[in-house]
Amino acid sequence: MSMNQRLKPVNQQQDSPYDSPFTLKARLGKVLFSVVWAVACRITPNPLNPWRLFVLRCFGATIRGTPYVAPSAQVTMPWNVTLEHRSCVGPGAVLYALGPIRLRERSTVAQYCYVCTGSHDVSLKAMPLTIGEIDVGEDAMVFAKAFVAPGVRIGAGAVIGAASVVTKDMPEWTICAGNPCRPLKPRRFEGRTGETP
After folding, report:
1. Would you say residue 134 has pLDDT above 60?
2. Sign of the dihedral defined by the CA atoms of residues 148, 153, 156, 157, in that order
3. Which residue has the higher pLDDT, 45 or 11?
4. Which of 25, 31, 102, 191 is close enough to 82 for a disulfide, judged by CB 3.0 to 4.6 Å?
5. Dihedral sign (CA 18, 22, 23, 24)
6. φ, ψ of residue 24 in degrees (nearest 5)
7. Contact at 8 Å (CB) between 89 and 68?
């Protein structure tokens, strides 16, 4: 399935193209979460990560094990976010989760990355909102200031170079970089041989 096939329109009846496609409950939840995060989490020190995870859980995020979320990270609609054990959301990183975002075990989204599930169908005059799920595989590393577009899957163990623009799926255990991001070479390191970690 291509990335474009993974982008889905947000099916909400709208009287005007300027109306929100989201329910009132979702819009209120988004605002309430941003206020709670700013007041109760943004100034917390790193050791209070369990508190930040608790707040995310209270707003519907799926938390498995003990991931890490930096206090300065930004999360939109946390009920669309799944964080698995030892995954990491770095300082200033944005999870723009209008649709599902999943960070699998030991994956990292480093500082100031922008992981964006929302876009618009520019082939239509009204440019309706579309969303595409983003999946960051186990042991993957997305380095600083990278942009990950809707519908992208980053393979297990992949490395995405700093400031890359990822608009297509990236393969497992591969170093990838650029604008647009592309696979460069296999990821090799001491203790890893063959096709599996």
Report:
1. yes
2. negative
3. 45
4. 102
5. negative
6. -60, -40
7. yes
